[in-house]
Design goal:
76% helix, mainly alpha
Length: 187
């Protein structure tokens, strides 16, 4: 149980950290296969703006509804594809602006952050197991990678003062890293 709590906390910490980085956060929301565009397509197909309203704050709802009507009208014309892309961009811009994240353009399908894709798959499947496995492997990889560096420095720590100091720096960083993981486990 303690391990599962640790993994969930690490998952949340990693997700928050990942989403806190503008480029990574927007790389999912502004992708043509991202959740906003999926909901925009659903809204346009059903001629109902409801699926996209969750992506914007209430004060931006009027702007979104007006853009939705424009997109619906334009959809029946020659430039339907361009109109749809304009509408995708419009909703994404509003969504990102509310979070003070710059919009840098629509991204092609497949450019979403892989971590967010795993989160979405877990939500769709109703089980965090694949997500937990993903993070368990990443955490284990991080510990192993750092351990190898510390271990190599440890073997040479007594050969010179410089190598000893190098070991101490690496050793302390490793301790901080492992303690940070453990503190997150403790809550």
């Amino acid at each position: 149980m303690k391990r599962k709590t640790f993994l969930i906390r690490m998952l949340l910490l990693s997700a928050i950290t990942t989403l806190g980085v503008c480029g990574i956060a927007s790389a999912h929301f502004d992708a043509l296969d991202g959740p906003i565009v999926q909901d925009v397509r659903k809204a346009l197909d059903t001629k109902d703006a409801t699926p996209i309203l969750k992506w914007v704050k209430q004060e931006d709802e009027t702007t979104v509804r007006e853009a939705f009507v424009r997109a619906l009208h334009a959809r029946n014309k020659k430039n339907a594809e361009a109109a749809e892309k304009w509408f995708y961009a419009k909703i994404i811009k509003v969504h990102l602006a509310e979070r003070e994240v710059p919009f840098t353009g629509l991204k092609l399908e497949g450019q979403s952050d892989p971590v967010i894709a795993v989160i979405d798959q877990a939500l769709e499947s109703g089980s965090p197991d694949a997500l937990l496995k993903h993070f368990t492997e990443d955490i284990a990889h991080g510990i192993r990678k750092r351990y190898k560096i510390v271990e190599a420095a440890y073997r040479h720590k007594d050969e010179s003062v410089a190598q000893g100091r190098a070991f101490v720096e690496i050793y302390i960083e490793f301790i901080y890293y492992v303690n940070k993981l453990k503190r997150n486990d403790a809550g």
